[in-house]
Design goal:
Elements (H helix, E strand, L loop, with lengths): L5 E6 L6 H12 L1 E5 L18 H6 L2 E2 L12 H17 L3 E5 L3 H8 L11 H14 L1 H11 L1 H6 L5 H12 L19 E8 L2 H18 L1 H10 L15 H7 L5 H23 L6 E4 L6 H15 L1
Helix pairs in contact: 1-13, 3-4, 5-6, 5-8, 6-8, 9-12, 11-12
Length: 312
């Protein structure tokens, strides 16, 4: 069941082109961009998070970028509250909210009626589980659950991150075995989302990922991580566990050469892109848009706008 509050969601794997496509939609349909990225929320972390450039942000109003101190704790529940307030404000002004990002957990929290009121008090443990899911995949959570409660692991699919996290939280709290939850697609939607998933041919996407990582290093990723460490941040901080930051920390700590660290960032980013696609393919209402199939970048963007005119 939907609320009738129309929003546009642009999602997909990292480096697929979400920022450009979200801005283009905002420009054509009177919209404002709301970031749905768990790294771009942090201040001082501009390069490694691949934030929109000042020129890109000047083309369309952006929200939820660069507003959280990386030394502070920030939960999915915090994101849900702030993001919904932001979206409701945009809707109230007669504009179209354009949600842009690849953090599936944040997107679920925004568009689905997920209640965090009864969330556990141990937010550090919850954030730890979310980080494992994001960096290592839900299969790592499934193995954790299997070792603690094999029966629950049999009931919960290894790709169902939400159920796995809640099951592990309950065990952590001493509540024992868990009962099944409803699937995300059966939850009430807080909004009426047109969900667009951007796709590219795999080799093309991987090439874009590799080139982007090299570009981030050229732009000063190592220097950015050094500045963050000088502020007192370490590999133990959630904000510094993101791909691109943890590998450079290892380089600065002497564990890898810079060449090895860059290769690890590229490899980990490619694996993360695969997990993102797995996550978004679970949405039963997603509309996939294959950029590669259009053959030409400019034509793909033009066709996308015409396609949206029919969909919105």
């Amino acid at each position: 069941m939907t609320s009738g509050k129309r929003i546009l969601v642009i999602c997909g794997p990292t480096a697929v082109g979400k920022t450009e496509y979200a801005i283009e939609a905002a420009c054509h349909f009177g919209g404002e961009v709301v970031s749905c990225d768990s790294m771009q929320i942090y201040k001082y972390m501009d390069i490694g998070s691949a934030k929109p450039t000042p020129e890109e942000m000047a083309r369309a109003t952006h929200h939820l970028v660069d507003f959280v101190d990386p030394r502070e704790e920030f939960s999915v529940a915090d994101y849900q509250m702030i993001a919904r307030q932001t979206v409701d404000d945009i809707l109230g002004r007669g504009k179209l909210p354009v949600i842009s990002g690849g953090t599936g957990l944040y997107l679920n929290a925004l568009i689905y009626d997920m209640d965090f009121a009864s969330a556990p008090k141990d937010t550090a443990y919850r954030n730890h589980l979310h980080e494992i899911a994001q960096l290592e995949g839900s299969s790592a959570l499934h193995e954790m659950l299997r070792s603690q409660d094999p029966d629950a692991a049999e009931r919960i699919h290894e790709n169902n991150t939400k159920k796995l996290i809640r099951a592990l939280e309950r065990l952590h709290e001493g509540e024992g075995r868990v009962q099944p939850f409803s699937d995300v697609n059966q939850l009430w939607e807080a909004y009426d989302p047109l969900i667009v998933g951007l796709l590219r041919e795999r080799n093309e996407l991987y090439e874009r990922i590799d080139r982007r990582v090299e570009k981030l290093v050229d732009e000063g990723l190592v220097e950015e991580v050094s500045r963050l460490m000088a502020m007192g941040l370490t590999s133990e901080d959630i904000s510094m566990k993101g791909i691109g930051y943890k590998e450079i920390i290892d380089y600065l700590d002497g564990r890898y050469s810079l060449e090895e660290a860059v290769a690890k960032v590229q490899k980990n980013t490619r694996h993360y892109a695969k997990r993102q696609l797995t996550w978004f393919r679970r949405y039963d209402k997603i509309n996939w848009y294959d950029i590669t199939a259009c053959g030409d970048e400019d034509k793909a963007l033009e066709d996308y706008i015409e396609w949206l005119k029919v969909k919105l």
